[in-house]
Amino acid sequence: MYGFLIAVGVLLLLSIIWMVYRIQTLVSVVKGSDKKIATGSNKVNAILFVLFLLGTGILMFWYSIKEFDNYQLPVASEHGVITDQLFWITMAVTGVVFLITHVLLFIFPYKYQYKESRKATFYPDNNKLEIIWTVVPGVVLAGLVISGWMAWSDITAPAPEKAHVIEIMGYQFAWDVRYAGKDNVLGDYDYRLTSAQNSHGVDFSDKNSIDDFPSPVVVIPKGEPVLFKIRARDVLHSVFAPHMRLKMDAVPGMPTRFWFVPTKTTAEMREELGNPEFNYEIACTEICGRGHNGMRKVIEVVEPAAYQKWLSEQKSFIQNNPALAKGLESDVKELAEIQ
Amino acid sequence: MATASVATHDTAHDHHDHEHHDNFVTKYIFSTDHKMIGKQFLVTGIFWAIIGGFLSILFRLQLGFPEMNLEFLRPLLGGWIDESGALDPTFYLALVTMHGTIMVFFVLTAGLSGTFSNFLIPLQIGARDMASGFMNMLSYWFFFMSSVIMFISLFIKTGPAGGGWVVYPPLSALEQAIPGSGLGMTLWLIAMTFFIASSLLGGINYITTVINLRTKGMSFSRLPLTIWAFFLTAVIGLLSFPVLFAAALLLVFDRSFGTSFYLSDIYIGGEALPNTGGSPVLYQHLFWFLGHPEVYIVLLPALGITSEVIATNSRKPIFGYKAMIISMLGITILSFIVWAHHMFVSGMNPFLGSIFMFLTLIIAVPSAVKVFNYLTTLWRGNLIFTPAMLFSIGLVSFFISGGLTGIFLGNSAIDIQLHDTYFVVAHFHLVMGSASFFGLLAGVYHWFPKMFGRMMDARLGYIHFWLTFVGVYMVFFPMHYIGIAGFPRRYYSWTNFEFTNMYTDLNMFVSVAAIITFSAQFIFLFNFFYSMYRGRKATLNPWRSNTLEWTTPINPGHGNWPGEIPTVYRWPYDYSKPGAPEDFIPQTVPLSATPESNLPHEQEQVKLEMEIMKEESEVLVANESKH
């Protein structure tokens, strides 16, 4: 029934198009307009360009202003404030160019539409103009690039030594988090050690790994540098924390990193937005298979004191599952159990 | 020199005499006539555009109406619709992958470059055919084979390739990771291999033809900008497609022969794979070494077509002919050294990111120059809005809108947030997808009379343009907003995250706009096929244009000109020249015939021209008497 209706609809549409087409062909033959260089439709098209300019222009401004709070994500990291600023500066510069060029592009068709009495101006070149509109965009772009480059250099500079180290490991289709523990050094790992009990493939014979601990949520302190050590164990993933303006691919076989300083606790952001349900999230932005759109991890930003308290309450991998220490040398084992 | 040219004329005559016994197969199927091959590329391209567009409608249904019962698609999609009537998420990924692959390679590379380079190069430079008609034919049939294989891959049980059109390993290398990486990916790689062979065969031909077969007087500084664009496009393709082949070949090794070029430290499906030492980032470098120039492979021909169409219909010379060529040359060179701006957050060294940010923003300068030159060409013109002209103006608009958002994305600091969000989707669909698509349509409307000897209906063209132009903006402009809001690409649904759990209304709007825009293309299809047989008969030079193709008969045979190939005496943009009686002077009119409109420096060239013509006629006379 459904298919039949669609077929009828399509048929109807086609016959209408057909009719309109035949009628207007006949009309144009009668009018002899097919012999003219420009018919009345030339004017119609010229006017439509102006209407398009006005219509879409109004629509764009109205929607951009109305929806500003919706599409402008709140920012919660130090570098995010800077990149947002760059974004809006670029928006202002390109916005001006966008408007000017489009006004010209759509006004010219109206203003210079075909008239039999007029002849177009023969104006093949003007080197001065060419130089101007090579140099001006060049200079403006140089300004944008240099400010972007300075921000980029700061963001990608090595993390401060005191940064809290957290490993985020992507796999199909979730993130696993490992904290470096008291020594703030992550233990070695080897992908061949990966198992159901040891999802990170941590090498527990490395002393640094003894105090490493897992967490279902990424808890980080406000105002202190945090270093994400990022890796993947099957295919490419990408850590995207939109409110932190943070994104870095997770690559199997090649650890990556991104450090940042969160500026607002989850509680503060909840209050600011008036949304008690709000959470900072991590999503995956590199296509990774069927569950690509479900790789969610929550980031909880807390006050530094609360963070220290939380840290001291965590139990290491080995404390959670003593079986992991099996096969380790006895002194290491002892150390692990005391921790 | 003079004798040489006489010799070519002679062979040309012979050639012409031979060509009246084409049968159906040699004329329509295994044709070596560049015009027929161009049409073959066009029709195949249109076929793929319908498929590619339709796939996008399928996934737009999912994005705009996630709750919708898609049961009615079961006859077509079978098991990819689950019991509850929802689209399978894996198949969703396959849809976006195939949409990208088809549109970028099969429609905008083969359909655009293949059609117009083939059709226009010999006609506009004054040649009988391509340098090698046979290679040209092979180029089409390699493309055809590639098409058949890619088409088959749509229907296999495990589905077509599903790792995104960039097919990054390890996802594309491991069948365990996604079913599309099995047979579907194998077929993808085979199809692309044929496609690359096709592109190379075509490209070598285009380059050779432009360099060697230009008619007398057709110097590089008198080439229409279309030819410059096709020429540079072919150069880019020739240098970058082999790198894609290398990338694909290494991927084949990793998939089938146990090598580790791209694979390292992988634990998947409960087992650790033996591969170590490979780098997925290596693939990305190789892929984007083609992938970025590819953007210009699809865009430059569209810009070339636009230059020609805008100049003709503004009745004005293109402003800054030389600046346009220099810009295209600049784009050609720079297009090879910006690839890593697709990889700012791929984990590559951030210093490399800085370098590529600088190079990327340099490429914006020649693009800006081109836009300003188009605007100045329109300024004080006498504009005739043929459908081709409308689509060209539309192209300039998309080129501006999409080009400006490139300035955000080329800035690595800003790109951190925007990378792989819908902002990117909006950006490249405008600047590369829609702009090139409009170039393709402008070309079809403009050269249809030359292709089929009939006119397309202008009024249907206007309706088609306005629906498509408004439609494209309604589809892609809203994507900027959801991109700024951080919506990631290639997501089956948005409900898993709080930050993306909004804008359902906007997504619905986009989907509706997409469906309307897609439907509007059927107006074009009707117009195209109907006009082919029943359209108004074309006149010799319907747009009153200067270029050489309009000096051929209305339905040119194989060999293009029944008599001698015309000689060229001037550049192709003498529109509305002061003093001239008409508002156009074709390239074949000698300067000596237009003393009233010659510029001072041209007046000096007249003397030289007269001498050459005199010499030429002497040789001809001598030649005649010998016979």
TrEMBL record, chain A:
What reaction(s) does this enzyme catalyze? Answer: 4 Fe(II)-[cytochrome c] + O2 + 8 H(+)(in) = 4 Fe(III)-[cytochrome c] + 2 H2O + 4 H(+)(out)
Q: Name the residues that span the membrane.
A: 6-23, 44-65, 85-110, 131-152
The residues covered by the Cytochrome oxidase subunit II transmembrane region profile domain are 59-159
Q: Which keywords does UniProt give here? A: Copper, Electron transport, Membrane, Metal-binding, Respiratory chain, Translocase, Transmembrane, Transmembrane helix, Transport
Could you give the cofactor binding note from the entry?
Binds a copper A center.
Q: Which GO terms describe its molecular function?
A: copper ion binding; cytochrome-c oxidase activity
The UniProt entry's sequence similarity note says: Belongs to the cytochrome c oxidase subunit 2 family.
Q: Where is the Cytochrome oxidase subunit II copper A binding domain?
A: 161-313
Specify the protein name: Cytochrome c oxidase subunit 2
Q: Which InterPro entries match?
A: CcO_II (IPR045187), CcO_II-like_C (IPR002429), Cupredoxin (IPR008972), Cyt_c_oxidase_su2_TM_dom (IPR011759), Cyt_c_oxidase_su2_TM_sf (IPR036257)
EC number(s) on record? 7.1.1.9
Matches recorded under PROSITE patterns: COX2_CUA, COX2_TM
**Cofactor(s) needed by this chain:** Cu cation
Gene Ontology CC entries for this record = plasma membrane
Bilayer topology reads: Multi-pass membrane protein
User: Which GO biological process entries does UniProt record here?
Assistant: ATP synthesis coupled electron transport
From TrEMBL, chain B:
UniProt main location, coarse:
membrane
Q: List where in the cell it is found.
A: Membrane
Q: Name one Pfam family in it.
A: COX1
Molecular function (GO) terms for this protein are: cytochrome-c oxidase activity; heme binding
Stated membrane topology is:
Multi-pass membrane protein
Residue ranges of domain Cytochrome oxidase subunit I profile in the record: 24-593
Per the record, GO CC terms?
membrane
Keywords annotated in UniProt: Electron transport, Heme, Iron, Membrane, Metal-binding, Respiratory chain, Transmembrane, Transmembrane helix, Transport
Q: Which InterPro entries does this one have?
A: Cyt_c_oxase-like_su1_dom, Cyt_c_oxase-like_su1_sf, Cyt_C_Oxase_1, Cyt_c_Oxase_su1_BS
Transmembrane regions: 41-63, 91-116, 137-156, 187-213, 225-253, 286-306, 318-339, 351-372, 384-409, 421-448, 460-488, 508-530
Gene Ontology terms: biological process: aerobic respiration; electron transport coupled proton transport; respiratory electron transport chain
**PANTHER family linked to this entry:** CYTOCHROME C OXIDASE SUBUNIT 1
Q: Which family does it belong to?
A: Belongs to the heme-copper respiratory oxidase family.
Protein's name in the database? Cytochrome c oxidase subunit 1
Q: Which species is listed as the source?
A: Algoriphagus ornithinivorans
